[in-house]
Amino acid sequence: MSTFPKDFLWGGAVAAHQFEGGWQADGKGVSIADVMTAGDNQTKRRITDGILPDENYPNHEAIDFYHHYKEDVALFAELGLKAFRTSIAWTRIFPNGDEDEPNEAGLQFYDDLFDELLSKGIEPVITLSHFEMPYHLVTEYGGWRNRKMIDFFTKFASVVFQRYRNKVKYWMTFNEINNQSAMMNEWSLFTNSGIVVKPDEDVERVMYQASHYEVVASALAVQIGHDINPNFQIGAMLALGPAYPASPDPKDIMKAERAMQVNTWYADVQIKGRYPAWLRQYFKQRQFDLDITLTDLDVLQAGTVDYLGFSYYASHVVQAVADERVDFTTRDEKTEIPNPTLAASDWGWMIDPIGLRYMLNWLTDRYELPLFIVENGLGAFDKVEDGQIHDDYRIDYLRQHIEQMALAINVDGVNLIGYTPWGFIDLVSAGTGQMDKRYGMIYVDKNDAGEGSLKRLKKDSFAWFNQVITTNGDNL
Ligand code: P53
Predict the structure, then answer these.
(1) How far is CA 285 from the centre of its chain?
(2) CA-CA distance, 163 to 107, in Å (whole number)?
């Protein structure tokens, strides 16, 4: 008997803005990803005031999947994928976000894509909002600072739920909705919520208000989706990794617990339908005076999700510091320290396969819901030699994580429904805007400067992952 359930969703994951390109094709509007420049390991991506000449915007062309989708889907089928996670670019459907009528050409593109996938037996898994809201909603409405966003988002959700009700079963509302809990990271507030931080404002209050509107919008979308098709499986999606205490000192243990609470409260609300006690207390103590209505609280209760999707890349170590202001944070430069027991990727992300099993256990105990690992992988530099890419480091990373998934299922009784490794076809990094931070089993010939033929090549990990899928995880 196989460890993995017989209908386990082996797949691959991407997001529209990081791989589609075609940023102005067929009426698409400008998204927040279209105004972000390229960076690298040392250089932060910049958010520009609209599209400026002479800047490099890597998402504009990305890997041009928009114009290659048929050949690419054929390659995904050859890889053996049973599931394919992507997002719907909101700006293809509502270019500005506040129109009355959707853009038919944008809707048609996803009809064609889903038909192509389904004809090859590949199940689409769709994120509604993955760091790509219409930029117009930022300039006109202030992004998710504004309650009106709930209407714009639920309208977008209704239109696509209705249109694809017979083609898509697995949905997620907001990608990594919890990234912004590290609110000192301005990039996360922009990518999650379209918020440009103003000097002298209380960023923490702004973050909690925007997050509240998003969990309400998510809960409304869950109800709308279930009304349209009761078979829809609609999930939350968080970035998750354990926060380990730096030492057995109870102060560090408490700090690690707090870091986990701050990082996961979105799942508490989306799964249990209510705010956790510590956070209700925190809102009162800080006197944020948030716009949270009684109706909102009913909506949260009525719109709980069917499963928890999450990304897993790394774990973190945190220590207590004698500074009250950092008590209620996830981690930051003051509290996070390196883990001497683990190796790191070239981008400094701690590689921790056992941490994935730990997380699967922790989430099962806390939520008792089906779990879906919708992102995992190693960002690395690849070398092409005679048309081949020998990425044994990537195979090792994925194998070790799959081994821990098998233990979590077999030994720990975790209900894991699928695994879609991130960026299984090379794409633009969200964090750095680079092409050369590669996660793929399929290589795409394009570099950080934007040069290359866009030709697709199979890496060694391609044949390896194909064998994993065809043996349902028995042959790693
Ligand atoms: P990149 C960290 C930083 C930025 C985005 O990240 C992240 C994370 C991980 O928690 O989120 C996801 O491209 C995200 C993807 C992204 C992927 O991680 O910076 O959902 O859009 O590409 C990998 O290496």
Answers:
(1) 31
(2) 8
CATH code, 9-470: 3.20.20.80
pLDDT band with cut points at 50, 70 and 90 for residue 184: confident
Pocket probe mutation, ligand 1, options 19, 45, 129, 313, max atoms within 8 Å of Cβ = 313
ipTM beyond cut 0.90: yes
In terms of Cα–Cα distance, which of 118, 98, 131, 161 is closest to 16? 131
List the structure tokens of 137.
């909603």
Between CA 271 and CA 300 the distance in angstroms is 9
Residue with tokens 């696509």: 160
Element (H, E) at 236: strand 233-239
pLDDT in tens, 103-146: 999 999 999 999 999 999 999 999 999 999 999 999 999 999 99
Q: What is the DSSP string of 395-463?
A: HHHHHHHHHHHHHHHHTT---EEEE--BTSB----TTT--SSSB--SEEE---TTS-S---EEE-HHHH
CA distances (Å), 73 to each of 79, 121, 422, in order? Answer: 10, 11, 16
The answer to whether the CB of 176 is under 6 A from ligand 1 is yes
Structure tokens at 183: 């609110």
pTM: 0.97
Contact 214, 174 (CB under 8 A): yes
**Interstrand relation of 442-444 and 233-239 (parallel, antiparallel or unpaired):** unpaired
Ligand 1 atom nearest to 187, measured from its CA: 4
User: Which two three-digit tokens encode residue 465?
Assistant: 């992952």
For ligand 1, whether the C-beta of 192 sits within 6 Å is no
In a 3-state reduction of DSSP, which class is residue 198? coil
- Of the candidates 20, 123, 132, 375, the residue annotated as catalytic is 375
User: What is the Å distance from ligand 1's center to 431 Cα?
Assistant: 6
Cα(305)–Cα(261) distance, integer angstroms: 19
- Could you confirm whether 375 is annotated as catalytic? yes
